[in-house]
Automatic annotation (TrEMBL):
This is ABC transporter ATP-binding protein. InterPro entries: AAA+_ATPase, ABC_transporter-like_ATP-bd, ABC_transporter-like_CS, ABC_transporter_ATP-bind, P-loop_NTPase. CDD domains: ABC_NrtD_SsuB_transporters. Pfam families: ABC_tran (PF00005). One of its GO terms (molecular function) is ATP binding.
Amino acid sequence: MKRDDQAMPQLAALEQGADAGVAGSDAVLSAQRVEKTYRNGTRALDEVKLEIKRGEFVSLLGPSGCGKSTLLKMFAGLEEPSHGHIRWWGKNLATVGTPGHTLAMVFQEATLMPWASVEQNVRLPLDLKHMARNESDARVRDALKLVGLDNFHKVLPRELSGGMQMRASIARALATQPNLLLMDEPFGALDEFTRNRLDADLRDIWSKQDLTVVFVTHSIYEAVFLSSRVIVMAARPGRIIADVAIDAPGPRDDAFRISAPFMQYCKTLSDYLTLANQGGGSHDALDH
């Protein structure tokens, strides 16, 4: 493939026709020729091949209907492929939940119990596991501190802003101490200021924890700010058309958001999204 380093920095276009092979030993997730066709005949995903390694922050970016959320649900074990295989840590779904192989998911809505305090909401998955109260209390305290809600543990969800409710939802996921965190557009309904602040906090949490994150978003700016890699998807049917590494050392802060590298990465992803919306994504379109 010809590569324009100015137009496409750190680009690694996926060769969808190549054999996916066996996932690497450090792979947390792998999709091996995964397809999804619903009963009404809709092809949601077509031969998706993807490997996500330990410690990566990978965003799935693409237009509505490209299968981002479907793929994420497969990674969570909530959907099964029509063809192909999903592997977790190189094994089948049975390995999920064993020591060192746990996952948690944050949905688009905070989905908090309105009658329960923030503390009780965050403790819910630990109570379901019948965890000892002293251990669950410690985990809840740590999770709330991570998301900046340590002073709001007794508050009811209705007394929180939308951004704070989402923080509580993230804390609930973090309290389980997951190795893999799946996030389905968690900040999509928030205003830009709140979204930027939560992006910065999430990036900070990821950098301090032994976490692998897969994050679904429609926002180019959010994907560039958060990610070590961005997977660009096209629709009809859903497929991967590019895998772009975001190689930006140093802090991801407000200065990064207005830097030349940030703008160039946004331009690169915008070009791919234009291609996706035009129904592109063939080898020729990617300059093979």
